[in-house]
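Recall the central idea of this unit: under ordinary conditions, the amino acid sequence of a chain determines the structure it adopts. In this exercise we apply that idea directly, starting from the sequence alone.
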Amino acid sequence: MTPDWTELDAELALWQDMGLSLPIWWRDDDAVRPTPELSRLNALAETLGLPVHLAVIPAEATADLAAYCAQQPSLIPVVHGWAHRNAAPVGEKKAEFGAHRPASETRADAAAGLAQIRTLFGDAAKPMFVPPWNRIGDETVQGLAQLGYLALSTFKPRTMAEAAPGLAQINTHLDPIAWKTTRSLVPAQQLVDQVTRQITARRIGGADNDEPYGILTHHLVHDADIWDFTEALASRLLAGPARVWAFDERTPA
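Accordingly, the structure predicted from this sequence is:
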């Protein structure tokens, strides 16, 4: 079903009339090796002119992925936990870096993840930590900056610019996948309405517009509807008041 973009278009037009700017960024999770889906992701990023912060699983990442990314400036490698293995007790939400694990263990894994991604990707690797399932214990968060990380990325609008001293919080805000039901696209109108509410909240001061608005995708599980909606939404935002944000170690956010 084709969504009605009218309200979102009106909101974006209002931003432009007011001279406002919407920073946007793109994060895509779970990369380990080159695949046809990764090639499609890269091609879409190049078409849009919107780079992808590629959350790479350190324990599984291959040298072939690093070689591929080295030739693709639209792909920006960041750290996606360590092995993307659920360590939560039965009955709790999945997490690899949750508070149920000793902070000494999770910090060791986070350090190993950054070291591995830097070994594979060199200077292209960015010190942003993306915990699998977007969940992380506070003790672990407090130690990330000491490990060399400059940013933490989870999901939902941030409440503070820094997750810990020296650690910028740069979250994602829209995930188009219906993980708990069809694993296809969330109803498109629901997504359009969500984006409209979120952007309106930024305009009226109910949310932090200094935080880049993040689109979260998972290229390995996309179907045609997810690809099409992601392209349509990003194209609409970029044609309006949006400006591209990419991680810069000098000014994380």
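Residues 176 and 252 are 25 Å apart (CA to CA).
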